[in-house]
């Protein structure tokens, strides 16, 4: 089985090259450095979901396109239990596990993902990306920070936020959490694909 980071790196590079875009152009549109993008494409560093979201907008694709090969468009997508793509982030301070529930979105506006975090292995970091985000806690507890507000979240709690505001989960070392996150892609990215 291919390592997730290698698959994502190859997908980013192929999407950029098929659009005949330079590293500099894509990096500038995604608000990341050219050297960082180059390292991502060579699989020398891991990339956060927030940076992937900015890259998806820069390349006018969905985040799901980084995880899957070409598939026919469909109005209905069924993914049996356990067949979502599990992606484990190995960046030193972001060892999250993401399970992309719908492998490819095409022109869909939402990306549902299950995120698992162990507080013992991660540090707190705020992120920003285009769109909106919905969070529903499945297991465990966490504090979720949105701008200047912090919410204590437990199983069954949900949160809806503007993802352009700094946000992120904050766990102490004894906490673990598993939650559903659904985020939207920007409307301009969808229209440019149509």
Walk me through the structure.
By secondary structure, the protein is α+β, with helices and mostly antiparallel strands. It has two domains: 4-66, Orthogonal Bundle (434 Repressor (Amino-terminal Domain)), CATH 1.10.260; 85-193, Jelly Rolls, CATH 2.60.120. Helices cover 25% and strands 28% of the residues. The strands form two sheets. Strands 1-2-3-9-4-7 form a six-stranded antiparallel beta sheet, with no helix packed on it. Strands 6-5-8 form a three-stranded antiparallel beta sheet, with no helix packed on it. Helix 2 packs across helix 3 and helix 2 (23-30) packs across helix 4 (49-59). The longest helix has 15 residues, at 4-18. The protein is globular and about 45 Å long. 27% of the residues are buried. Residues 187-194 have low confidence and may be disordered.
Layout of SSEs?
Layout: H1 4-18, H2 23-30, H3 34-41, H4 49-59, E1 85-88, E2 97-100, E3 110-118, E4 132-140, E5 142-146, E6 149-153, E7 158-162, E8 167-170, E9 176-184, H5 187-193
Antiparallel strand pairs: 1-2, 2-3, 3-9, 4-7, 4-9, 5-6, 5-8
Helix pairs in contact: 2-3, 2-4
